[in-house]
Amino acid sequence: MKLLISTMLAMIAMPAAFGQHQTFSVTPDASEVRMKLNTTHEVVSGSFHVQSGSVDFDRSAHQISGMVIVAAGSGKTGNDSRDKKMNKDVLKTDQFAFVSFAPKSYQGNIVSSGTSSIQVRGVFTLLGVAHDLTISMQIQMDGQKTMVKAHFAVPYVDWGLKNPSFLFWKAENNVDIDLNLVGKTSK
Fold it and tell me: By the 8 A CB rule, do 172 and 38 touch?
């Protein structure tokens, strides 16, 4: 009798467990990456184009995988000569066309509808070098429509990129990033 009850409970729970796997597909034209770099004379703000993104996750097993790819040469700060220098000297876009983030695990709960706050650990690849990074993310799910927001700092100088400071114009060694992803989540 206990075996029969256990088997029935397992069969009832099985579809719910399998139903937790979902895919978040990013809509690039509705998504953006904003950056902010503090300097001694101004705050440099800009944006980058999200090239693509697809993230698979399983709410029941706390598993996550996939990748979000940003076009490194798409950065616009409102100053063409600064953008050219950023692309050539800092991001080296002639060699490294993309910046990416590949999530590997997360902590917290992703609810099927409403707002969730999670910590995502993954690999941020910049200039072809992988760096471990944990990012706090807010996820808003409304049916299939999904929005992901995150704010984090990239220690670009510690990661081997050139600080663009010159003479009396000094830039901080970290750049603030606001990630805004919009897309659809499907089963």
Answer: yes
Catalogue all structural domains in the chain, each as residue range(s) with its CATH number: 21-186 (2.40.128.110)
What is the predicted pLDDT for the residue at 37? Answer: 95
Structure tokens belonging to residue 68? 């979000």
Smallest CA-to-CA distance from 127 within 99, 103, 101 is with 99
Considering the entire predicted model, what is its pTM?
0.85
Give the DSSP letter string of the chain. -HHHHHHHHHHHHHHHHHTTEEEEEE-GGG-EEEEEEEBSS-EEEEEE-EEEEEEEEETTTTEEEEEEEEEGGG-B-S-HHHHHHIIIIIS-TTT--EEEEEEEEEES---SSEEEEEEEEEEEEETTEEEEEEEEEEEEEETTEEEEEEEEEE-TTTTTPPP--BTTB-B-S-EEEEEEEEEEEE-
Which residues touch 64 (CB under 8 Å, ≥6 apart)?
55, 56, 57, 58, 103, 104, 105, 106, 120
Tokens of 4: 């029969």
Residue 20: pLDDT band (50, 70, 90) is confident
Strand partners, 65: 56
168-186: per-residue pLDDT in tens? 889 999 999 999 999 999 9
What is the C-alpha separation between 61 and 177, in angstroms, rounded? 29
